[in-house]
Amino acid sequence: xxxxxxxxxxxxxxTQALPYIRQYTGKIVVIKYGGNAMINEALKQQVMxxxxxxxxxxxxxxxxxxxxxxxxxxxxxxxxxxxxxDGLRVTDRETVDIVQMVLAxxxxxxxVNLLQMKGGQAIGLSGMDGRLIEASIKDERLxxxxxxxxxxxxxxxxxxxxxxxxxxxxxxxxxxxxTYNINGDTAAAYxxxxxxxxxxxxMTDIAGILKDRNDPASLIAQVTPEEIESLKKEGVxxxxxxxxxxxxxxxxxxxxxxxxxxxxxxxHSILMELLTDEGAGTMVTGGNA
Length: 289
What we know:
alpha/beta; Carbamate kinase; eight-stranded mixed β-sheet; two-stranded antiparallel ribbon; 14 strands
């Protein structure tokens, strides 16, 4: 069903967004993009439109992307089985080559092209470019899965200063020339921290942190890092949500003003979060948001 708005109603919507535009103009927002919002083509188009719109009103957007499903699909095509330990992909030397091909190649350049088609200026980077993400082996059992040892943020700042949208694939490297597969949420948190971003947005496949995982109405609108620890002890935060909230805590400790965990399957959820009273998802804040 198509909803029709009068010109006056459209003008009113823009007027209501003005305080939020003023709040974020000139600030940095890091968006971690993945999941169904990346797989669904219509949602992908809307996410790119949202990002270009934010850039045009003066928000400095950094897009950090994953690509787990596409990596698994490519591995299957090449006859290689995906193996996971504690939710992390076991990455031998052959697998890391596939990860690099999919993340830094196909996905990264597709997103850059889409942003430019929507009227934005974008440049793709991997964590290996300019040694943006330096890493070491996280766990011998996982192979070339990296833990971040250093962020060299200058290439990202240079692109932002020139008006570009940096699009970053989450690969890392070390001084010996090894390439590492880096968890996307972790990379986004470290990059947002290095940039002292105003906000980091984690686009996920759930509404946010729920008191009852089976009840979307039990969404917790706002938490502090300390409250997260209590929710973990109570079992409210468990399983795959634990590493996500730990990334949020890391970002807050590093100086990010606040972090949003939100459902990327909702159309224009980024604009709802940043430019309306309604917001979306769960906000993790250091307590001064």
